Write the structure tokens for this entry.
Amino acid sequence: MDRSRFAYATAAAVGASTAIFFVWWWWIKRQKDQPPSRWRKVGELSDLICFPVKSLGPVRMNTMECTPLGLKSGWLRDRTLMVIDLNGQFVTGRQMPRMVQVSPSVSESYLTLRAPGMMAVSIDLARIRGKSFRAAVWGQSVQACDCGEEVARWLSRFLLQEDVGLRLVYYPLDRPSREVRTKNKIFPLTESIDTGAYPDATSYTLLNEASLADLNNRLEEPVNALNFRMNFVVKGADVLEEDYWDWIKIGNTVFRNVKPCLRCIFTTVDPESGKKNPKVEPLKTLKGYRQITDPEIRPATGDYPVMGIHLGLRSKNGTIRLGDPVYVNILEKEEAILSTPP
């Protein structure tokens, strides 16, 4: 094994330990704010997934534009629509697992929703009118425009078996407007520019295929990337190597690893059936080997395990495509190994 591969394998081995102390957390605070000049390839983009409506089904794409608000292709934008209750509180698949069975699609400016046993319903996003109001995501106030009665009844009937109870709202801005959630401020690289429209934490997330395969080796029944609802899936990297990535470049678009992705009960919802796993998997298994144990971070993260990373866009808008190479910056310790004479 050459010296560079030895360095990468060492980092992956540390990341695979059962107790995650996240030396990353304090180490990353010392890193430069400017993108690096040297990169190494770690894999390729194997899946590109957009979720136009928070907690509903996915739209897989071959190419998309990366913007501060998230993935975009015309009127298709990531998590810029959201289901709320009559009190203006967001509703997710944690409470209503059947939400994942609603399949969205976008053609020009028309959003169409389909679900088992239901006629399709369509709305023209370009014609959404009315004064914006404030809805809530995790207790944070965020702007919203109501999408109308027809789609509200459709969602209420499918999810509640009632004619009323739920509304669909659309984010009216072209930039993020929320502050970083208090619990996420423990991670020093989180910024308000990364909070997106309606996502839980940031506009972009990334999953490593090798880390998912490692998890599946521990499970009786395998899960897939859709259990984790990530935007980017990367193949070719080492198991859990992503824990220690800092700067990431997909094609020519640059991102920063701003925090680990904490996993909740939503991971136990089958993306096809909309039913929760009776054995609480894969969450139960993840808790057995992917806990954050650092005493400075633990109060903010509790017993939520980690799988994947949250990214912040750190370059101008860029277009990414399936198959694009994925690079990470060369770390100082790797530079030392690479520059040491044989």
In short: Residues 1-19, 336-342 have pLDDT under 50 and may be disordered. The radius of gyration is 20 Å. The helical segments are 3-15, 23-28, 149-160, 209-216, 283-289, 298-301, 332-339.
